[in-house]
Every structure is written in structure tokens, then in C-alpha cells.
Amino acid sequence: MSTIERAEVFVASPGRTFVTLRITTSDGVTGLGDATLNGRELAVASYLRDHLVPLLVGRDPARVEDIWQYLYRGAYWRRGPVTMTAISAVDTALWDIKGKTAGLPVYQLLGGRSRDGVLAYSHASGTDVPALLDDVQRYLDLGYRAVRAQAAVPDVGGTYGVRKGAIYEPAATALPEEQPWDTPSYLSFAPTYLEAVRDRFGFGFHLLHDVHHRLTPLEAAQFGKRVEDCRLFWMEDPTPAENQEAFRLIRQHTTTPIAVGEALTSVWDVQHLITEQLVDYVRTTVVHAGGITHLRRIFDLAALYQVRTGSHGATDLSPVSLAANVHLDLAVPNFGIQEYMGHAPETAEVFHGGVTFADGMLHPAEEPGLGVEYDERAAERFPYQARYLPVARRLDGSVHDW
Ligand code: GCO
Ligand code: MG
């Protein structure tokens, strides 16, 4: 029997920080898992190195479900982003190994293709409305059939989602940057630029918008109602998801579809949202919601309630978990859309292979496993650099949800 011989944790910052797990079997097969938790990376690296790696050595890598149950139930302490990201990395690496051992791409192990490709959306943004419109044009020219639009609120500055460099990267400073936030200014401005996008480009593509947890339930209801004529694909995270009853109030007032879940980490965290049909899209991912094994369970529950998938795919999801997500997206019946921001050029020096983009769709690699390799040597050129996500403060100085 093949056994897990070693499991190594790599922390490197090629363009941004990634934590990567590599499991090697006694047969010399390797599998990769992403363990990146933006701004809290070293906590997961320690969880893996200090607490999970010693439990893995000697086990049968083929027993993917059993290892998931062993790590989850065996921790006693349940859920939470650090635990679930660490378990995700192990699970993803084991699926990679299973694919390589079987000689099949992972999506084949999940039941094969349910579709020809995976619809992807990317991020257009601008420091003002003309710049946003230019950026939407750029994404349409690149072949995207779905575009997220965000613009900086005039006179407030620091609005979520507005790109400074070539790629939107919010975790950019050694200590958290403090950004101002003003809800009334956002509420009066954001609908106008979404309308400007529809006025200029029409309705022949999907338009998305991320509110990024900034509104109260009633404000979110007002916003959703106000933008109904824009026919958004979704409004994302309109209000923080700790209080899930809040979505019922939003629902009672607007037919703008709702997407939630990028910061949630287990089926129990989304159970109420799904079974009460409080959201239309669930945004949990392979990397933060327990790997392929657990994310598939979430997606299956969602399918029963006509909730579709819309997995998170920001730059802080490494090419490994993005690939794993796209394998799953290709297979599940209730796929909706996949976020795809791409990565900095340095990231591609370390992670080779992965998904490809063509005509608005993502495609996984056809090699056995996930189709991504980690270049350890190249990673040494990019030592770990601490980077934090920003913190938002209202104009009176009090902390707001970033
Ligand atoms: C998105 C997200 C990201 C997150 C980031 C946090 O919709 O892509 O909201 O931009 O803020 O992934 O680490
Ligand atoms: Mg988001």
C-alpha cells in the first residue's frame, strides 16, 4: 500500500503571499493544496506544520473522505477559517494525488463534465465613471461575458474594489491601511455608475457588483430595489453574513439576486442561507470551505434549493485552489459562475500550469490531477512578506466592515 511519506508547507510571496502544502507518497506521487488565508497566513502554516502533518505521515492517501473526517472530527474544535483552510489544503492535495494515480484529471473523478467550460467574471474598476467605462470595455474586448463593476466614491477615497496597479490587490501594506467609508455617499453614487455601464454597453453581458459587507439590511434592500433595472447578475455580500435573518428582509424588498459566502467555511455556515432560500448564489471555495470533498457537499445541498454556485476567485486564491474549483465547477449540475481575477506575473513563475481562459470561459488542465506544479526553487526568490487587508473607518472615525 502506498502511504503518505511527507507533507511540506511552503510560504512565499510571489506577487502576494501563498501558503502551499505538498504531500508526497511512498510511490513518489505528489499532490498540492492551497492553504492561503489572506492576512492570517502564518496561522494556517503553523496549524498544518505543527498539528496536521504529524497526523498524516503513514496514512493511506487514497482514503480522502476518511482523512477529512479524521481531521475535522478529530480536532474537536470545529469550523473556523484557520481549521477549515488547513483541512482544505490536505483534501485538495489528496484529490490531486488520486487524479495522478488514476491517470485522470480531477473533474473526471467527480463525474465528468456537466458543461463545456466554466463561465468566468472579472473585475472592472475606475477611480471615476469614465475610467470604469473604459475598463468595462477592456474586459469585453478580452472576451468576458460577465464583468464586475466598482468605482471610487467621489470625495471619500479608498472605496473597496478599485484597482491601483495592473491587478486589484487589497492586501498591499505591511500593516493594515485605514480607508474611509461613507454609506450615504456610496448609496447615492453606486447605482448611477451601474446605470452608466448599462446605458453605454447594453444588456448583452452579465453585470455584477460587490457591496463587500458594507450595508445594513434595510440599506441593502434600498440598494437592490434601486438597481433592479440594471438587471444585475448579483449583488454580492450586501450585508455581513453573521446575522443571516437579515437576508430575509432584503429579499422581501427586491428581486436583485444575492450572492454570499466567500468568508464562510462550512456547510453549517451556509445551511440556513440555502435551505431558507435567502441567497441565489453560494460563494464558498475549495480553499476556505474544506476542500473539494466538503465544497461538493455544500453545492449538493444548494442544488436542492435552486441555489447556484459562484465561487470566490480573488488573487488570494492560489492557482492550485483556483484549478481545484474549476474542476468542481465543470462537474456540478448547479454551477452558476466563477470569479477569475488572474494573478501577478511573479505568481506564474512559481505555480506552473492551471486553468486557461478563452472566450469568457475557464478550462482546467487535461493532465492527471489538478494540473498545477509548484516550483520550489523559484519560490525561494520570493520570501514571505507580511501584508494585511485594509480596515475601514466611517467619517466619524469609528470602525466599519471592510
Ligand atoms: C471578491 C472579494 C475579495 C476579498 C479578498 C479578501 O469578491 O473577490 O471580496 O476581493 O476582499 O479576497 O482576501
Ligand atoms: Mg467579494
UniProtKB/TrEMBL annotation:
Stored InterPro entries: D-mannonate_dehydratase-like, DgoD-like, Enolase-like_C_sf, Enolase-like_N, Enolase_C-like, Mandel_Rmase/mucon_lact_enz_CS, Mandelate_racemase_C, Mandelate_racemase_N_dom
Pfam families on file: MR_MLE_C, MR_MLE_N
PROSITE patterns, alphabetized: MR_MLE_1, MR_MLE_2
CDD domains: RspA
Domain annotation Mandelate racemase/muconate lactonizing enzyme C-terminal: ranges: 129-257
Name assigned to this protein: D-galactonate dehydratase family protein
Organism: Streptomyces millisiae
